[in-house]
Write a structure and sequence with these properties.
Chain lengths: 94, 323
């Protein structure tokens, strides 16, 4: 099997695991959101590495489409989380 | 020989991305973490290009690195400026979580290794390439997004709409930035038209080459972010009512097209063979506008204050708010 795919698969798993740990352990909301984004990037990397079919070959488009929607959903979820955190802090200050 | 060199490059890129990800989440200074995260996103874009995924590389560079970074930096501005020495939880919970992450990661890695050793995996890629001619576009990623799996994309646009409704519901717009100096103003004057033209190009070219609604929408939103950083509080968005229409246009046009084709005896979202290219372009154009408005409003953090252009004497009030 392709060494390239394997290397990026393992990197994706590593990112997922370290993002997961940091998401639980971070105290600040912003730090958690950042960690969840790293975690998601790891999952995306696993998908894209599985889609890779070798040099000169056209990669599998189905995982690519999934990751593309995933990137956009991730950024909108991040924005929602940050907006919720901001309103939480503002209501806590009063 | 060449293959070994490529694998060496892969190893370097993979270790670099893991190290950057680690540094971004492990940093006790959030500002530092956010900047590292932006670098992490750019490196991801390079990796997507290496893995023959140019569509993703474009989207990641514009969204993952650009817009996410801008969002997190804007959120940092709200954050009280205290550097917490103990940003991480300590003690037994830290050990337990570390162990748990190792176990989950190990199981994940084991499953992937297992999948890799499978001899001849069944792939949907063959199906995609076999029917590509009937899809109306020749970029396989666009074909999957807008034709084969149009339901997914429709619901994904609905998710975006739900997220932006949540943002509008809970948040007031963040305070505006003070008007930029002449140097940055000139840069904005050059970059914004360029971003808009490039966005239009990406939307059009998405039918047969890397590009499409998501990348185009992200670029337009990038133009809005630049305008806002340059001191335009409304980020160049139209009036509040028009904004609402733009937000729902993505889902609205998608559903309308899906319903109109049923008149002709097709199933919901099953395009007729001739003319599917046109329908896809129509849906993508509406989706581009919707995505751009959504991301721009997400950056502003609420409904954009339109028509409140800063009068010359009021600059200093805003300056007080922004710093």
């Amino acid at each position: 099997m392709l060494a390239t795919g394997l290397i990026y698969n393992m990197a994706g798993v590593a990112l997922f695991a370290l993002g997961l740990r940091a998401a639980v352990l971070h105290r600040a909301l912003l730090g958690r959101v950042l960690a969840i984004n790293v975690c998601g990037a790891g999952v995306f990397m696993v998908f894209v590495a599985l889609a890779y079919q070798g040099p000169g070959q056209v990669a599998d488009a189905v995982p690519h489409a999934l990751v593309l929607t995933g990137i956009v959903v991730a950024v909108s979820a991040t924005a929602l989380a940050l907006a919720l955190g901001r309103s939480l802090r503002e209501s806590g200050d009063e | 020989m060449l293959a070994y060199l490529w694998n060496l490059l892969d190893l370097v890129l993979a270790s670099l991305v893991v190290a950057l990800g680690w540094a971004a989440v492990a940093s006790t200074d959030l500002r530092r973490g956010v900047v590292l995260f932006i670098a992490f996103g750019l490196l991801l874009a390079i990796i997507w290009a290496r893995l023959n995924a140019p569509d993703l590389a474009l989207a990641e560079a514009a969204i993952g690195a650009g817009l996410s970074g801008a969002l997190l930096l804007a959120a940092l501005r709200d954050e009280p400026a205290t550097v917490d020495d103990i940003a991480y939880k300590q003690g037994p919970v830290s050990w337990a979580t570390g162990l748990l992450s190792l176990v989950v990661g190990g199981a994940f890695a084991w499953a992937l290794l297992h999948a890799h050793s499978a001899a001849d995996p069944m792939r949907l890629a063959d199906q995609v390439s076999t029917h590509l001619e009937q899809s109306g576009v020749s970029n396989p990623v666009t074909a999957v997004l807008l034709n084969y799996r149009a339901y997914d994309t429709l619901l994904e646009l609905a998710v975006l709409l739900a997220a932006v409704l949540g943002i509008i519901a809970v948040g007031q717009a963040r305070p505006a930035y003070r008007p930029a100096g002449p140097l940055f103003g000139a840069l904005v004057g050059w970059l914004v038209p360029l971003l808009i033209v490039t966005g239009g190009y990406l939307l059009w070219v998405g039918a047969h080459a890397p590009g499409g609604a998501f990348q185009a929408g992200a670029l337009l939103a990038g133009a809005a972010v630049m305008l806002r950083l340059g001191g335009n509080p409304g980020a160049g968005l139209p009036s509040a009512v028009t904004q609402r229409w733009l937000l729902v246009s993505g889902v609205g046009v998608f559903i309308a097209v899906g319903l109109i084709v049923t008149v002709d005896g097709h199933a919901f979202l099953q395009y007729p063979h001739n003319g599917s290219g046109m329908l896809i372009l129509l849906i993508e154009s509406a989706a581009t506008l919707a995505i751009a408005t959504t991301l721009a409003l997400a950056y502003i953090g609420g409904t954009a204050p339109v028509g409140q252009d800063v009068a010359p004497g009021e600059e200093f009030k805003n300056q007080g708010l922004s710093d």
